[in-house]
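Hi R.,

Here's the chain you asked about this morning:
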Amino acid sequence: MFSLAKSFSAAERLDLATQFVRSFPAGTELLLVGASRDAVDDFVRGLACSAPATFGLHRFSLTQFAARLAMGKLAAAGVTPSSAVGAEALAVRAAYEAAMRNELPYFAPVTKE
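And the predicted structure, written out as tokens:
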């Protein structure tokens, strides 16, 4: 089931979302997507205060959900998403290899072992 709530009032949107989630039996797997993961986590914490259980609630930001949906196609294409740490590691590796071939003379003083 899909539900879309539209209101200028954040309190009203949260109340509608709470009613929707509570309309399912405890333990039902539900997909919760919000503007940020923190916002969805805050919503679930609010539910947990008065619910017997919050098992089965899968929480994502819109960006996280889009990345999760894309993983199958990325894997089929033989590529993978990267993080900021991965990008930094790639840059360090490229700089190291260039320095070992003496292709970075300007940076030579700081690249020596």
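The mean pLDDT is 89.

Let me know if you need anything else.
M.
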